[in-house]
Amino acid sequence: MLKLVIKKEFLTALRDVRLQVSGVILISLMLTAVFVGRQGQKQIQKERVQAQSAMYDKWVNQGNKHPHSAAHYGQFAFKPKPVLSFLDVGLDNYTGISVFLEAHKQNEVLFSASQDSNGMTRFGEMTAALILQVLLPLLIIFLTFNTFSKEREEGTLKLIHAQGLSMRQLFMGKVWGTYLMVLLIFLPIILLAYLLLGQQSTGLGSGVTTKFLLLTSAYAIYFLIFVLLCVLISAFGKNSGFSLLSLLGLWIASCIIMPKATTNLADKVYPTPSQFEFKKVINDKVKNGIDGHNPSDVRLASLKQQVMDQYGVGSIEELPVNWSGIAMQAGEEYTDQVYDAEFTRIEHIFNQQNRLSEWIGFVNPYLAVRHLSMALAGTDFHHHMAFAKAAENYRREFVKKMNKDMEVNHKPGVAYGDYNVGKEMWSSIEPFNYNLPGATTILSNQWRSIAALVLWLVGLFFVSFIYAPKTSRL
Amino acid sequence: MKTILHILFFEWKTLWRSNTLKVLLLVVFGAGIYGIYFGKFEIDKQEDRISQVQKYERQQFDSLLVWAKLDTSIINNKEKYQKAVSPTGFGWSKHFTYYLTHESSATAGLCLGQRDLFPVYYGFNVTDLARQVNTGELANPMKLLTGNFDLSYVFVFLFPLLVVALFYNLYAGEKEGGTLSLLQSQSTSLRTILFGKGLLRLLIVWGLATILLILGFLLQGIAFGATGQLFLRWSLIVLGYCLIWTILMGVIVWFRQRSALSAMLGLGVWLIFTLITPAMLNLFLLANEPLPNRSQMIHTLRTMNDQNWEHPKSYVLDKFYPDNPQFNDGDTTDFYKWYYASFTLLDKEAKVMNDEFEKQIKKRNSLIEKWEWLAPAAIVHEKLSELSSTDRDSHLAFMKDVRAYHQGLKDLYYARIFSGDQFTIKDLQTLKKQL
Asked: For chain A, what are the domain ranges?
């Protein structure tokens, strides 16, 4: 009996001209987004890999010089464009793409695409995510808004009832019938997207496949939530017009208005400090000490004493090692501490802001799937921070190595310009290599969004189960 | 004329008695008020930052002026005095960090545009500018992506939806409510009646838009009169935009379809014009037209810098003097002359590269401008941000001011550095006046 209802719903939807038209539009949008997006992702990634290796070449072939000059010459880190970013571009156009790594300071990750584009960028980029999160629910609304009211208006509801079909069965039949229709559109395209991935010559890491499957499941759950919600509202709507208006109102509120209002609210609740304050705090702390009572000259003097005691000498000139190298590395490590504390503070504020909209995912499943999708595609804030941190660690490592070489090998009494090292030293630094966080890390970062989706799904099934029998009374 | 007024009056009565209109208007009005409030909040935050920076700059400079008057026979004063009067600074730290701020225009709070993507102030000393402006404001990229809920957003995105909601059952509502045959039996033609109904709805939309605009100007304290007829221009753009949507909905109503289908069609058009077309254009542009590789500039500058330090001082000064003959005294050995001359060379090269980048970007953006007419929402938003000086061009103009200000500072500093003189109190006062 249930199967019959599912079949009926599915076939009616399939034969509806309006839905055929909107289905075809949706599929062609998806195809374009997936094909063009994948092409673009490949090209951008190629450019970044080339830039990365070209810059490493420059580092290796910078010629003979003092290791500290080399640390000033510096290196670059380019953010890889994640493979799955063609499905969800996320924050990619609003975060920087490269960072210059040099001695003494932690530079910002710079040059976001949005800064080099005109106002049109703010309207977003057509990706599978936009279509699946925003447009497909609209199709679900059109499929379901009159699914009950039509039966009621045409008087078939009583007939079905008389056939011995329980309202609960009818309800679930409509849900699964519609869901089947949605999957018919969704699955082939997502399969195609997966095949497009496979064309990559370097082969797929198992991580990508896992993330892809998780992404697909997240969307599958999201659609089921939407179908349940729509059928429920349609079951209790007075008439088709009312159901349509309330569903569209819900869609506008959750997909268009709420996301903006939420992020704006988050910025108000957890205010972002200005760049000016941020830099001032860093400078003050480096100058006066993290606690404010340990100025840099006092720190240097005590370090001097400590090193002289360690080597049992009475003056810096008698040291068997290079004092500047030691002092520089100590300074480097002190600034690192300050930078770490301040950057962590900012990161914490941004995480709090984002978490607020993740929590609101419990009210609005669109927000939940949006966060989860970005995270799995590798384009969320956590991924940006992971890159920035990897680049910074790389910087610290190579600067430390330069300082160490200076400390040990640049003998006292030799002029700065007379101590030079070369290619052997430069190529002993491995090229910058950054791997995206794995699926487990992503899932644990996103537990709120996952919980929100699961809760929605279970809750809606529960509500449907309880209230479906009451539909007949209306 | 009398018939039209008659229709308007009775249609208004019917509309007002249904709760749908009240709810719709209330929601859009509420969104508008929130937009005005939010825009003001954002722009006030930027203004606060600007005044914080300016205040700090003045305080710092005032202490320089105090130090410059210190009695240097006291040993403890010597360092401070040197810091104040030496154009080359003290040790590795430079003489002074100047700030230039990008003041917001009158209606910036109504349309925040691209302003949140760029810093509204830059801090720099007289060394090369190129590496000092490579910085951004701290911002959560999530917020940048989602964009701002300002009044322009309400106009560009929500008003068309209001138009759709008011118009979709203009004809079908009568038919489905069973009143169509009654109307057809009237002496007034159905066309006139429908026109009257449409006109009333347009007037309601225009009325709400005007009220929100007036409130926006009032609540944000924007002068109505003086500032280049801003209010008039805003009104023209917004009312014109609403009119376009009314015409579009009029065409849909003209098909005389059922209300559900008309609503879907209206929403479909809205999706195409505000969401799908701009997103499609962006897809093709962002994914397929490469952006200039700006890290190339940092690389060029570090290589130049590297060469400058590796070679004898004449390497830099021989290139510097031909461009700046006023400083040419034939000295090619002095450290500070060499040091500051090298910054000028870096900036010169950076300028050439930056111009090249901007040319590329202009070409890239002109690609999108060719198709922009397909996305009226984007055009209107662009026009409003242009009016509010919150678009990218306005930031570029600010960058130009930064360069000019930096050059002005350099003229004074370099004159002292190359003559080997220190700043006099008068010099410092001249500099203070330029803050």
From this structure: 2-269+321-473
